[in-house]
Every structure is written in structure tokens, then in C-alpha cells.
Specification:
The chain has 466 residues and is of the alpha/beta class. The protein has 19 helices and nine strands. The protein starts with a strand and ends in a 24-residue tail after the last helix.
């Protein structure tokens, strides 16, 4: 009979700790540590080969946590060993490992204990682990992350430039209310301060692309009446240096984005681009987070992964309001937020959904959160059924949901006993029960059976006694 053993790996920079447990969480191979080098990888192969020779009818299930890339070398090596060894390897979420460890009341945190926590998680939650998954988005993820880093750097430089313009050339800021245009950057590269712009000739300013004669005239006149408090040479040099860096980053971002579009010939990306509001960059960003839609059994699971699912707390009499969970990493939610913000303007169906939530009295940010959840459900359906975006599909699903929305779940939980107002409950609960009883009395009677209409499931519930 084949027996499974579990290899837990805690990866650190330059080395990793290992431990092997059996199905009963007993230590079979005690902790050992190897370096992330050629010799360390070879030693691991010899150890695993010797272990499987000792237990011939066995299989090793190994896992590493996602640690920002330090685990990739070990993961690639173990994946290559699968052709020669009875070995399966997985990359798992450290969030689940951490909570599983807390459930066992472990208070000691060491590399050795962390490796054991990984192995125990594989044993306790086998349904949460997917082995031998190939990451088709590895190279695309690196380029996408690089573009994101460049964009962040550009925003930081723009913020710094704006703060300098406020004291050196504040009149130009009126043309940068939405974004810093290319002509503005080229103007500042040539005339960084209001003092220099005031001395410029009209013909020289007009030579800058996209600057008309009237605009050039306004710029010069405004500069002559400027309230700028700084016009020294050092401030001008800093502004020129910032502008040069921003222009270089703009070119690099455009180049990398074009390369991303040319190299990303993935069917799922093209499918997502059929949704108006999702471009190549956003589609790639969604897919490197989702990886495979088969990882999620429902759209609710996907929403939970992104941290946009609604949550509320109900215990006894207490009930807190609904809100977005915001669990997990914030980067996927930032991407989804930008998609939703664009779609509420340019996608007619999403714009309709957004307006509907606003009419219900929801704040704008809360309505935008509801739109994020809706978009993610649509994305799940598109990927699950391999179907391009069609708003009529979601309209039909919404209509179907409205037909069943009156079915109350709390009635099903009380199917064995109706609520009793004489029970020793709190005043708040007693008030709820009286309101419930009053609503049952006011319900219309069934014409044939002369019994109260019951809102629960007919196959599991019984009418109240009269």
C-alpha cells in the first residue's frame, strides 16, 4: 500500500530548512538545513533518493511558501526531480500556514518550526493544496511587475516636481490639474522657473509641440505676474533633473508595455480584453493573480482571494454592517479598483450598476466596491465558461436571483421549532421575535389550505400551528 510522506520546507535567503513527517504528523526525517547552491541541491536529491529507497512504496508531497521569489530555485529543482522521484511539489499561501499554526497554539517561531508548520498544513488541509501546477505567467509576471515599479517611480517624481513648481512656477500648475502633459514637461525642461519663462520669447515657446501661440502668450504673461518665491539656480537644476527622469521613465514604460503586449499571446488575456474597461496591462495583472480559474470553486472564492467580498458579523443580538473584507494583499484590489473606476465611465452596463447603487443611497466609494465585486463575478464567469463578455448573461442571472430573493434563510434554521416569545432571550431579541410574529400574522392565507404561507423550503419546513 502506498504511503504518503510530507516534506515541509521553510525558505530563507540563501538556504532552507527541511523536515519530513508521516500521515500522523510524526517526524520521520528530523530537521536539516541546506544552502541554495548547486551542492545543496545535489545533497537534497541524494537525501530524497535514499529516503524513497528506504520506503519504496511511498510518495513524497513537498511544499514551499510564497516568500517573494526566494522559493523559486528550490521549487524549480524539485519540479525537475519529479521525473526521477516519486515526488509532488506545491507552492502554498503562507497565510493559511500561519493560521493553521496558530490553531495548534504554537508559540515558538523558528525556521525549524516553520518547516514543520508547512508539513502539518499539507496533512491537515490536503483539499487546499494543488500540486505540480505550472506557472505559465512567470516571465510575464516579472515584466508586469517591472512596469508597475516604473510607474510607481514616475508618480513619486511627479509628486516631487509638483511640490517644487508650487514655489518656482506655480502658474503652470493650472494646466496640470488632471495629469502632467508632455508639453508641460518639455516646457519645464527649457524654462524651469517663472523668472526664466517670463524672459522667454514667444516664438521660442511656440516651438514646443502642442503649444499654440495663444497658449504661449498666456504662459509668458502669467509668468511675468508670478507669485513664485523661489527662482534660484539650484531649484531650476533640480526641476530640470526631475523632468529628465520623468521623460525617461515615460519612454521606458511605453517600450515595456509594447513588449508585454507583443509577448503576451495568452487566450485568457484576450478573453478578458473583451470586457470594456480591461486592457492588456490589466488583463495580465488579473491573470497573474488568478493563474487558473480552476483554483476557485465559485466566484465567491475568487472574491475572497481578492479581498473584495462583503463581510458582516452576527453573534447573538449583535450585528455589524456590511463592509469589504480587504483581506490579503492590497495590490490585486488596487488593480481591480482602477478597472472599476474606468468601467463606471466607459462600460454602459457597469455604469448602470454603479448608478443603481448610488440611487439606493450608497456612498460613492461603497458603490465602487460593489462594482469591483460585480466585475470579479463577471470575470469568473468569462474564464469559467470560456465566453466573451456579454452583459445580457449577467442581466439574466440577476433576474433569476430576484425570483428567489424572498426566500429567508433564517426560517430554514427554525424549521424544527418556531420562535417562542416566552423564551428567556434578551430584550432586543424579544423585540425581533415579536416583529417576526406580527409579520407572520399579517401574511395572506392560502385559499385552499387556509394555512399561513411559509417562506422556507417546502421539502424541509412545516407550517406553523394555528
Amino acid at each position: 500500500m502506498q504511503q504518503n510522506f510530507y516534506l515541509g520546507i521553510d525558505v530563507s535567503r540563501g538556504y532552507a530548512d527541511f523536515i519530513i513527517l508521516d500521515e500522523n504528523k510524526k517526524v520521520v526525517e528530523d530537521n536539516f538545513q541546506l544552502d541554495d547552491t548547486f551542492d545543496g541541491h545535489n545533497k537534497l536529491y541524494k537525501i530524497l533518493s535514499g529516503f524513497l529507497a528506504k520506503y519504496p512504496a511511498s510518495n513524497i508531497l513537498a511544499a514551499v511558501e510564497s516568500t517573494g521569489g526566494y522559493e523559486n530555485n528550490w521549487l524549480k529543482f524539485l519540479s525537475a526531480c519529479q521525473s526521477k522521484l516519486q515526488l509532488s511539489v506545491a507552492r502554498i499561501n503562507p497565510f493559511g500556514v500561519s493560521y493553521n499554526s496558530k490553531a495548534t497554539l504554537n508559540r515558538i517561531i523558528t525556521d525549524k518550526q516553520s518547516a514543520r508548520n508547512v508539513a502539518e498544513y499539507l496533512i491537515s488541509h490536503p483539499e487546499k493544496v494543488q500540486y505540480n501546477n505550472q506557472d505559465y505567467y512567470a516571465s510575464v509576471r516579472r515584466q508586469w511587475t517591472f512596469i508597475k515599479m516604473l510607474t510607481k517611480q514616475k508618480v513619486q517624481l511627479l509628486n516631487q516636481l509638483e511640490s517644487l513648481l508650487y514655489i518656482a512656477n506655480p502658474e503652470v500648475l493650472q494646466y496640470c490639474s488632471n495629469k502632467m502633459n508632455l508639453w508641460t514637461l518639455k516646457l519645464l525642461r527649457k524654462y524651469p522657473t517663472a523668472k526664466e519663462l517670463a524672459k522667454a520669447r514667444l516664438s521660442s515657446v511656440c516651438k514646443i509641440p502642442y503649444i499654440t501661440e495663444s497658449l504661449a502668450n498666456d504662459l509668458i504673461n502669467n509668468a511675468r505676474k508670478s507669485v513664485a518665491s523661489s527662482d534660484d539656480k539650484t531649484t531650476a537644476e533640480v526641476i530640470i533633473a526631475l523632468v529628465e527622469q520623468i521623460l525617461q521613465l515615460r519612454k521606458l514604460i511605453v517600450l515595456q508595455t509594447k513588449q508585454l503586449q507583443a509577448s503576451c499571446n495568452i487566450a485568457e488575456v484576450e478573453l478578458l480584453k473583451s470586457f470594456k474597461g480591461i486592457g492588456t496591462y490589466s488583463a495580465v495583472g488579473l491573470m497573474i493573480e488568478i493563474l487558473s480559474v480552476e483554483r476557485f470553486s465559485s466566484s465567491k472564492k475568487l472574491a475572497s482571494f481578492f479581498g473584495v467580498h462583503p463581510v458582516f458579523k452576527q453573534s447573538g443580538d449583535g450585528l455589524s454592517g456590511f463592509k469589504m473584507s480587504k483581506r490579503g494583499r492590497k495590490q490585486p484590489r488596487e488593480l481591480l479598483f482602477n478597472i472599476a473606476r474606468f468601467a463606471t465611465v466607459h462600460n454602459p452596463y457597469i455604469k448602470e450598476i454603479y448608478a443603481m447603487h448610488l440611487q439606493k443611497g450608497m456612498p460613492k466609494m461603497a458603490a465602487l466596491g460593489a462594482v469591483m465585486y460585480k466585475i470579479l463575478r463577471i470575470v469568473y464567469g468569462m474564464l469559467k465558461h470560456n465566453r466573451q463578455y456579454d452583459p445580457e448573461v449577467d442581466r439574466a442571472n440577476r433576474a433569476k436571483h430576484k425570483d428567489n430573493i424572498n426566500r429567508a434563510k433564517e426560517d430554514y434554521t427554525r424549521r424544527y421549532q418556531p420562535m417562542d416569545i416566552t423564551a428567556p432571550v434578551s430584550r432586543r431579541q424579544l423585540k425581533k421575535r415579536k416583529q417576526k410574529e406580527q409579520s407572520q400574522i399579517l401574511k395572506p392565507l392560502d385559499a385552499e389550505s387556509n394555512e399561513k404561507i411559509f417562506t422556507g423550503s417546502d421539502s424541509h419546513c412545516f407550517p406553523e400551528e394555528t
